[in-house]
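F.,

This is the one I mentioned.
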């Protein structure tokens, strides 16, 4: 049976195990590269809003990207606690 996913960027339904549809995949890839590049060259801003305005990536997409393992250090700096560990300060 085919499994339909809803794209996290545009809301389109598509068949894949990815979180975004094939149309949005290049945008995700580009923004992830931009985010990694920014973080490699700059100190992490102290808020999501600052990170969003510095990278041009929406807060919504940043939230999604920062859930990836690669960004766990950044996520904890920004106090984005993963869903499994709440209220740990
Ligand atoms: Zn999409």
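My design for it:
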């Amino acid at each position: 049976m085919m499994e339909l996913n809803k794209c996290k960027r545009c809301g389109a339904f598509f068949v894949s195990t990815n979180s975004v549809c094939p149309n949005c995949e290049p945008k995700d890839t580009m923004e992830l590269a931009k985010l990694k590049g920014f973080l490699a060259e700059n100190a992490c801003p102290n808020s999501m809003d600052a990170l969003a305005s510095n990278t041009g990536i929406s807060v919504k997409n940043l939230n999604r990207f920062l859930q990836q393992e690669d960004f766990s250090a950044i996520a904890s700096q920004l106090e984005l606690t993963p869903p499994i560990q709440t209220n740990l300060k």
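The first helix runs from residue 25 to 41.

Talk soon.
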